[in-house]
């Protein structure tokens, strides 16, 4: 049976009082908590990419995508 463990991954530095030191190694046992911490750790979710991944399966259970602004030529 797969465990209920989640990790936060980001291409940008994460900040926030909720985020433990060595956050990329921290494992969360609660999906909702992992998502909440991920969101609170972003300075601007419209410009940064972050995701929460189920440890055992590698399934991405939450992610943000930076907004791509198309500029007319």
Question: What does this molecule look like?
Answer:
The chain has 73 residues and is an alpha+beta fold. Helix content is 14%, strand content 21%. A three-stranded antiparallel sheet has the order 1-2-3, covered by helices on one side. The termini are far apart. The mean pLDDT is 81.
Give keywords:
globular; 3-stranded antiparallel sheet; single chain; 3 strands; 73 residues; alpha+beta; 14% helix
Give the SSE map:
Layout: E1 6-10, H1 31-40, E2 50-54, E3 60-64
Antiparallel strand pairs: 1-2, 2-3
Query: In terms of per-residue confidence, which ranges show pLDDT below 50 for 5 or more consecutive residues?
Result: none
Round the mean pLDDT to the nearest integer and report it.
81
- How many helices? 1
Report the major sheet: 3 strands, antiparallel
The Cα radius of gyration reads 13 Å
The strand line-up of the biggest sheet is 1-2-3
Identify the overall geometry.
Answer: globular
Helix- and strand-based class? alpha+beta
Number of strands: 3
Helix content: 10-25%
Strand content: 15-25%
* Helix and strand run: EHEE
Calculate the terminal CA-CA distance, rounded to whole Å.
Answer: 53 Å
What's this, in brief?
By secondary structure, the protein is an alpha+beta fold. It has one helix at 31-40; strands at residues 6-10, 50-54, 60-64.
